[in-house]
Amino acid sequence: MKNLVGQVLKERGITRYRFWRDTGLARVTAYRLADDPFYVPGGEVWDKVCQALGCQPGELLVWIPKKIEEDT
Fold it and tell me: What's the CA gap between 70 and 72, in Å, rounded?
């Protein structure tokens, strides 16, 4: 799995700071989501993220087959 939060924030012109404040997540969690595409937290975090960004989880996650992941 890969999260697309950083990509979505960039496309929308949202800073990591604003994302953190809007979600109410712990700062380290919000920044890690924005910076580490391979960080995939639990459901409560996704609930806050989707609420803040007004989107569905499927817009923020993509599955990458293991073979492709190992080749990159």
Answer: 6
Angle at the Cα of 32 from the Cα atoms of 27 and 35, rounded to 5 degrees: 125
Q: What is the architecture, at CATH level 2, of domain 2-71?
A: Orthogonal Bundle (1.10)
- Tens digits of residue pLDDT in 7-56: 999 999 999 999 999 999 999 999 999 999 999 999 999 999 999 999 99
- Residue 69 one-letter amino acid: E
CA distances from residue 60 to 18, 24, 32 in whole angstroms, order as listed: 17, 18, 14
Write the DSSP assignment of 40-66 as a string of letters. Answer: ---HHHHHHHHHHHT--GGGTEE---H
How many H helices and E strands in the chain? 5, 2
Q: Where are the domains of the chain?
A: 2-71
